[in-house]
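tmp note - ATP/GTP-binding protein
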Amino acid sequence: MYLPEGDHQRVKILVAGPLGVGKTTAIKTLSQIPTLHTDEVMTDAAAGTDDLSLIGLRDKKTTTVAIDFGRLTLPGDRVVLYLYGTPGQRRFLPLWEGIAFGALGALVLVDTRRLDESFEVMDLIEERGLPYAVAVNTFPDSPDYDLEIVRSKLDLAPDTPLITCDARELNSSLNALIELTAHSISSAGVGAS
Ligand SMILES: Nc1nc2c(ncn2[C@@H]2O[C@H](COP(=O)(O)OP(=O)(O)OP(=O)(O)O)[C@@H](O)[C@H]2O)c(=O)[nH]1
Ligand SMILES: [Mg+2]
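out:
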């Protein structure tokens, strides 16, 4: 599917976060083109590395081994967002570096059952000076913390947007993206290349 004629401002956005937090789901929900995914079936070889039982994902059969990619044209047809899902596992970090190049900002998905797993990716984003917003993806058995508690547990800066979302729902995911875009624009120049 091609872009309509005309001048477009192309913006690269990362969708980041730990294993199984909903990155692929969010990009599928948001993209207006068929998404590119590189999910592979998880084998028993991953059992000691990607522990799904800990995160209530015993039924999860695949994981993203490189990137997810989707595209979204904002109303007005002038700004096109390119969404790059970045793998959550530590062993993919060198790949993550390449994907992050030139990004305007990052949407970090977190799960309140395992907030501690979010620090690694937030550190990488902060090291590059990329603006980011944090979206708590709501799973049925995740603790329903007040957002101020999540902010404090994640040690977020006061101006870092923090929202809840359901990655399966368009309006909810769009809302998270809009928070990030507004924050990235207000931090313009910081980390953008
Ligand atoms: N309840 C609920 N389930 C979700 C949500 N987002 C994703 N899921 C489910 O959680 C599981 C993992 O989602 P993925 O989108 O594959 O997560 P991921 O972050 O891409 O996973 P990796 O690529 O393996 O790191 C899937 O079974 C989704 O259907 C959500 O917002 N709410
Ligand atoms: Mg994925």
